[in-house]
Specification:
Length: about 400
């Protein structure tokens, strides 16, 4: 989905997924919930095929992404593909709304257990109260099995929709949105210098998302921020009365900045900050060391989130394979894009994930957990390049990162 710089990035929004059997009224409930027709409602089972991700402001939850999914009881060959996509959507959800409209809860409870294992809060909604006669019994059964209090609604008559919102507010994970990009590295009144090359790879007329988000966070933290292009770094340092506490730069020019920086200034890169913000930095650092064990018989999986960004394409498709092959011989590199990420990772010696600026942490973490479970080293672009160029030991890490 295209992003505008004026809006909260997709990845920072609370993702609320609606799950349930076909025809339980998921799409109708979403429409009632957001007060506008965002989803296609129909009485033909299986109308919502691919999950629909819609960014919107939902009072009082704030910036959300609402995910409408196909029924998890979808059948046939196409149905299986849809269920797989629903599973992917389940990994992205910060909160799962499970919609039921009858007393057969077998599938619903199966999915509940999947969410429970992932620590994803679940809200049960019993829909079609206007025609359902046993909603109380269903609610009791849900409470017995899961200790959850279901909300009984009618999406059609729009009854009890406010209760759904209230219940959701209470389910927002406590640590949601508290993670910081710059962690403990800097605080109020600290001087931070951003050295950002605006070369041909930089998008015309704007900054890339990690730079915008870092800048915003530093301003929110009341840091004193100065931004320069690479060539102006010496002039900026000469003007300053004291050295910056922290310098953040692009990994491509890290060595140059390291050479020029005052001894007392800490240095890090946007990509390493984002590796910690979006993923698991210690696992990435460990994974980067697996690069040293690669041989020409090895197979590396490169996973890219955007299928279109020329900058990451250049790194993922050309730069990284070239650097790896220079070190380990003509090894095999497989590249996947977007949401593609194999379930079975056993054929790979290393996985290298992109910066994931378009994905939110929960989803990136689900990939990392899959790699961990299968004992496959995983790292990301920034950390891999930092390792390959020998700068990793020179980078300042926040205490909550390593
Ligand atoms: N009576 C009644 N019908 C509903 C209600 N919610 C949805 N429906 C109907 O159930 C059918 C399936 O709804 P839809 O939202 O497309 O279900 P989905 O497949 O879960 O997304 C449609 O014919 C809706 O009009 C409700 O609260 N009461
Ligand atoms: Mg639907």
């Amino acid at each position: 989905m295209a992003e505008s710089v004026h809006e909260t990035p997709m990845a920072n929004r609370l993702h609320i997924g609606f799950f349930g059997k076909r025809n339980s009224g998921k799409s109708s409930l979403i429409n009632a919930f957001v007060g506008q027709e965002v989803s296609i409602v129909s009485d033909v089972a299986g109308t919502t095929t691919d999950p629909v991700y819609k960014a919107m402001e939902v009072h009082p939850l704030g910036a959300c992404v609402i995910i409408d999914t196909a029924g998890f009881d979808d059948r046939g060959e196409l149905g299986e593909i849809r269920v797989e996509k629903t599973r992917l959507a389940a990994q992205k959800a910060d909160i799962a709304v499970v919609v039921c409209a009858d007393g057969d809860l077998e599938e619903e409870l199966k999915w509940y257990r999947i969410f429970y294992e992932k620590h994803t809060p679940v809200l049960f909604v019993i829909n079609k109260a206007d025609i359902l006669h046993n909603s109380k019994e269903i609610a009791n059964q849900i409470q017995k099995e899961t200790e959850n209090m279901a909300v009984v609604v009618s999406a059609k008559e729009k009854t009890n929709i406010a209760q759904v919102k209230e219940a959701l507010v209470r389910l927002v994970p406590e640590d949601y949105d508290e993670r910081q990009i710059t962690g403990e590295l800097v605080g109020e009144d600290d001087l931070v210098l951003l050295v950002m090359p605006q070369d041909i790879q930089a998008p015309k007329g704007r900054l890339i998302l990690p730079q915008v988000q870092t800048l915003r966070e530093l301003l929110d933290k009341k840091c004193l921020v100065m931004s320069v292009t690479t060539d102006k770094m010496p002039a900026a340092l000469a003007l300053l009365k004291q050295p910056p506490k922290l310098i953040i730069t692009d990994s491509q020019i890290f060595s140059y900045v390291y050479e020029k920086k005052p001894a007392s200034s800490m240095l890090t890169s946007f990509s390493v900050l984002f590796a910690a913000y979006k993923g698991d930095l210690p696992y990435y650092v460990k994974g980067a060391k697996a690069i040293d064990r690669l041989t020409e018989d090895s197979k590396v999986l490169i996973a890219e989130c955007c299928t279109h960004a020329p900058l990451s394409e250049d790194i993922g498709r050309e730069k990284l394979p070239r650097m790896l092959r220079k070190r380990a011989g003509n090894l095999a590199v497989e590249i996947v894009g977007g949401m593609d990420f194999p379930n079975d990772l056993s054929g790979y010696d290393l996985i290298i994930q992109c910066g994931a600026c378009m994905f939110h942490r929960k989803y990136v973490m689900s990939r990392i957990h899959r790699a961990m479970e299968q004992n496959i080293p995983m790292t990301n672009y920034g950390v891999a390049i930092a390792h390959l160029t020998g700068i990793l030991p020179k980078i300042a890490f926040s205490e909550n990162e390593c």
